[in-house]
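Researcher: Good morning. I'm working through a list of sequences from a screen, and I'd like to move beyond sequence-only analysis. For each chain I'm collecting a predicted structure so we can compare shapes side by side. This is the next one on the list. No need for commentary yet; just the structure.
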Amino acid sequence: MSKDHSFQQDLWALIKDIRFAMLTHRHPEGALHAHPLTMQNRDLEPGDPIYFFVSKKTELGQRLLSDGNVCVNYADPDKDVYVSISGNATISEDMALKKKLFNALAKAWFPGGAEDPDLELVAVAIQHAEYWNVKESKATQVLKMAAAAVSGKPPEMGEHRELHVHD
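Model: Good morning. Structure tokens for this chain:
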């Protein structure tokens, strides 16, 4: 992804346990549309894309072939973690990679396994990533917001980091 390995490690730590992501793409008519998808990565090293399995029946893969600009969002409201990743989505037919990523949960959607003719592998190359990680307890957040309301200064809560990837 970039030379900022610590950002990549922090990003992976935030998203690895979030079961579903929302992948947003543009319809041919121009409207934005989002799909809930399950990330297939087991890790995320610098330069690695994010992987998703999708059904060819959904036509999502065909839409991504015509416009691969996507935004992938993750949220864990219980932990106050929010992640937004922008990138370019492509369709991969790499059977070795499909087999490597395939798991028991994917079998529910693709009973033919990694070789299921309905299975497409979407790879999202990360171009920009941003996250918000509010580490304070809910009580501390409320106190900081109350203090900010009195002082007129915005509250300082949690961590916000951003990374632009340059190819």
